Amino acid sequence: MAGLVTYGAYIPLHRLRRDDIARAWGSAPPGGERAVANSDEDPITMAQAAAIDCLGDIDRDSIDGVYLATTSSPYKEKQAATVVARSLNLRRDVATMDFTDTLRSGTLALRAALDAVGAGSAQRVLVLAADCRLGAPRSEFEQILGDGAAALLVGGDDVAATVEASHTHSNELIDLWRSSRDNFVNSWEDRFVITEGFLLNMQEGVSQLLKKSELKVQDVTKAALYAPDARRHREIAASLGLDPKTQVQDPMFDRVGNTGAAFALMLLVAALEEAKDGDRILVANYGDGADSFILRATPQIEKIKDRQGIRKNLASKRYLASYETYITHRGLMDTEGQRRPPMVSSAPVLWRDQKWVLGLNGSHCQSCGRTFFPPQRICVHCRSKDNFDYVPLAGRKGTLFTFNKDALALSADPPEIWCRVHLEGDVGVYCRMTDRDPDRVELEMPVEMTFRKFHDAGGYPNYFWKCRPTRESFIEAGEGI
Amino acid sequence: MNPSAIRDKVAIIGMGCTKFGENWDMSAEDMMIEAAYEAYEDAGVGPEDIEAAWVGTVASGITGNLLAAPLKFRFMPITRIENACGTGQDTLRNATLGVACGLYDMVLVMGVEKLKDSGLSGLPEFFTHPVYGQGATAPGRWALGATRYFSSVGLSPEEGKRCLAKIAMKNHHNGTMSPKAHFQREITMEQALNAPVIAWPLGLFDCCPTTDGAAAAIITSTETAKKLRPAKDYVLVRGFGVAMGSGWGKENFDYKYDYLPETIAAGKQAYEQAGITDPRRELSMAQIHDCFTIAEMMEYEALGFSPAGKASEDIDAGTFELTGELPVNTDGGLKSFGHPVGATGIRMCYEIYKQIQGKAQLPARQLKDPKMGLAMAQGGHPGFLQPVVAILGRSDLAK
Q: Among the listed ranges A233-247, A331-345, A448-462, B128-142, which one has the minimum average pLDDT value?
């Protein structure tokens, strides 16, 4: 029976204090903070990071499908899931699909994955949802949106949660939209959007689901509910008859924000982290209709360990210096950069080199046993020719061997920190560092590799790997895990 | 290989060098004309005497026409050379081989670079993989060496930066006595240490400027030189070293960033060709590649001037100052004289040539009785170097 094998999540390191947004526009300080993707992050890189968290040491060759849900893909035409699949070194015959355009795309992808596994066309499907939606400067969306990603591995065996029931319905109504030319989320007048759109459809979906499953709302251990903001979240929970103290999964509006297509699934991951054998989790999501699921945790749930999940991602953070930093990270203001040559790209080079550019594979010499990155056809050490295996380096622990802080380099966030990192197995990797506090970079510090966007030369996103200080190193004393 | 195959067979009989700097009013062609005509006049020859030429530039043009067009050479063999920052020395090396084998007897060697038309800070990008290494800068790449070198030799970053500041002060001081240098101003330790950071740990005064310039040499066989000029006025080419790194040092776990293996190899080749066994004692001076002060510091060790890990002690002792045991960058170096890439190596040879002739531009800079000098420039950065070494000597050194 199809269910969830395991889960993962990703919340960017950076948080923006909502009071900093208010200060920029002279409005009342609302308190709280929102998660903000770094300038080198987008839904593809965030989904990839959640996927790595989800997969842990699961055999990558066992994955039959990657379903990527987002409303903010960097592409209007061209698939995003293929980038993630190659960066994870999945099989070539993996089924890649993008689910787009609706806030329901995350739960629609989950539904499709459950159907594929249920029908036997796939054994294991990786469901990813990520969003980085933009609210116009000074809009309420700018305050309430947040960036993040969730990952669920759907499979038939050894599931940690079974799916007892599901319901979906579609509903045509113009409430939120971005036309093909829009950068920012648009909304019709709030009263209409909430009453005719959000509340009615969520209520309809959940009541149909409970009827199908012959359950009462009291049977729900935790409810992972989409809502546009904290106030509407309280309203929908109350209208469904849920006890806000015990039955409602904390929606994290004051720490992350509304993460769009990823939101309901991130709340599901948070609920799964706390779940015990036998717990029932209600998931309800809204967007051009509503999707809802009842999941039941199995004894396997308590065996899932070593995930960053929501909890650890929440605990490790770094504040953006200012609203201006946020607005430049999102490319919303033209700033003067260094007078350096513009970046250039080449589609054939990116295609030819994807084994290492996307997959971070090194060459492991079969003759002398040394590993090099990028891969070398002729071994640097023993000059053995074309006698190597590709070895993935992404999960290896690293230390910082040498570095600079380059203020001259073209950078969205100077100084650019270039490094040589030493990874486990005596592998030297020359790379940039991201998600760092320049004043806390020092020799021999522990680092890990992370998949990021480098630039948009050629008119498309160019992805590669950087190192970063370990996420754990940003857990502040007393933040509490 | 026969290391003494070319030793003392070729002589420099004339040289020219433009004012180095931001030569807004001069094109590459203008500067080549300036350098060539100074060299003609010095050598007492004219364009009609030149049989072949080599021209070196990294980014200011392609093909031998680059030189033929402004100087109006008619249907003569001319080859353009590029080997990054060592282009100047390598242009001289290729021309020297042409003369040493007897094919040509009067050859023009030109190095030129016009950088200030680009509008960029620093050098243009030469390495354009879509993501790997793209956007790295020259100071950033050398800073990777500085960070690790300091740690490896037991200097704190602050102590290391003081050593670098002393190199910058020395080269700025020497530059004050070089009218053709880009800069003629002293700097203080405080200025150097408090300057804006370019690529930590390197600050503004650890970096050479972006400069326009050209330099030229006229070379001939030693036999011909004897007929054309008095013995004190021509300088012999004693040997070269060129050592291309396989280029994977920065990816190679075994390379630890605290030494310059390519530079060591190039130095050894040049010393063997020139018959040098103790460079610190036998060289009267060295013009070496201070694109960044950390480069000069690490080169002291790579070229055998200082024992490995001990450069800081020699810096503190003043070994490489104008009055020291082995004066280095007597004309101000890249740091002060400037770094028009293709011209730099020829400019270094120009300084050695003038010093050996006793004609340093200002008498305050003239070394006493110099016999032999080393000119080393290298492109790249720790882990990926292209050093080229030339050694020049006084005519009475020839056996």
A: A331-345
Residues of chain A with Cβ-Cβ distance to B257 below 8 Å are 401-402, 420
Instruction: Find the CB nearest A409 among B135, B148, B248.
Output: B135
Q: Which whole number is the average pLDDT over A358-378?
A: 97
Give the Cα separation of B81 and B55 in Å (integer).
Answer: 6
Please report the ipTM that was assigned to this predicted complex.
0.94
Nearest chain A Cα distance for residue B40, angstroms: 38
Q: Which residues of A touch B124 (CB under 8 A)?
A: 341
Largest CA distance in chain A: 72
Mean pLDDT of B15-40: 98
Q: Is the CB of residue B200 less than 8 Å away from at least one CB of chain A?
A: yes
Q: What is the CA radius of gyration of chain A?
A: 22
Q: Please give the structure tokens belonging to residue B179.
A: 């009218």
Going by pLDDT thresholds of 50, 70 and 90, the confidence category of residue A477 is: low
As a whole number of angstroms, the distance between CA B268 and CA B374 comes to: 12
**A341/B120 CB distance under 8 A:** yes
B204 contacts on A by Cβ (under 8 Å): none
Check CB contact under 8 Å for A408 and B257.
no
Q: Of B136, B151, B383, which has the smallest distance from its Cβ to A409's Cβ?
A: B136
User: pLDDT (tens digit, 9 = 90+) per residue, A114-142?
Assistant: 999 999 999 999 999 999 999 999 999 99
Provide mean pLDDT across the span A188-198. 96
Contact B121 A340 (CB under 8 A): yes
Nearest CA in chain A to B258: A402
Mutate to test the interface with B, among A406, A426, A456 (most CBs of B within 10 A): A406
Minimal Cα–Cα distance from B306 to chain A, Å?
24
**Residue B138's closest CA among B87, B213, B207?**
B207
Would you call B130 and A345 a contact, using CB atoms and an 8 Å cutoff? yes
* Chain segment A230-265, per-residue pLDDT in tens: 999 999 999 999 999 999 999 999 999 999 999 999
Q: How confident is the model at residue B323 (pLDDT cuts 50, 70, 90)?
A: very high
Given an 8 Å threshold on Cβ–Cβ distance, is A374 in contact with B254?
Answer: no
- Going by pLDDT thresholds of 50, 70 and 90, the confidence category of residue B307 is very high
What pLDDT does residue A361 have?
98
Stretch 352-391 of chain B: residues touching chain A, C-beta under 8 Å: 383
